[in-house]
Specification:
By secondary structure, the chain is of the alpha+beta class. The protein has a single domain, classed as OB fold (Dihydrolipoamide Acetyltransferase, E2P) (Beta Barrel). It is 18% helix and 44% strand. Strands 1-2-3-5-4 form a 5-stranded mixed barrel. The chain is globular, with a radius of gyration of 16 Å. The relative contact order is 0.21.
């Protein structure tokens, strides 16, 4: 019985518990729908600024890889790719195939000017 409860707690914490949430701002580098069985939206945002790498003398841009479950949020990202956007995300400790390839799941989109493209954030459906 204790083993079953421990396994259930592990699965809940790994896949359903929201570890952190926040907002990232930048320009969408790419955004596409992909997957063999579960089609999810995957994207990469390029953020302003540069980061140092471990290789001496090289610099690279800050990248934010994310997944989107909601069709309406995906549509808003596609419409806002020509200008900078702010993405509100939730981070889970594990990935699920129907949630995408990233631990970062975007649930709402804001324009770079701060105006929300949606009135209320769309909840991520836990399955």
């Amino acid at each position: 019985m204790i083993a079953v409860l421990a396994l259930a707690a592990f699965i809940f914490i790994k896949f359903c518990f929201v570890y952190s949430e926040g907002v990232n701002e930048g320009d969408i580098n790419y955004f596409q729908k992909e997957g063999f069985i579960f089609k999810t939206y995957e994207g990469k945002m390029i953020q302003t600024g540069l980061k140092n790498t471990k290789v001496q003398g090289s610099i690279q841009s800050n990248e934010f890889k994310f997944s989107v479950v909601s069709e309406s949020v995906a549509k808003q990202i596609n419409e806002g790719t020509s200008a900078g956007v702010k993405l509100h995300w939730k981070r889970y400790l594990g990935t699920l195939p129907w949630r995408g390839n990233s631990q970062f799941i975007v649930d709402s989109v804001y324009s770079a000017s701060g105006e929300s493209h949606i009135v209320t954030p769309i909840p991520v459906v836990e399955q």
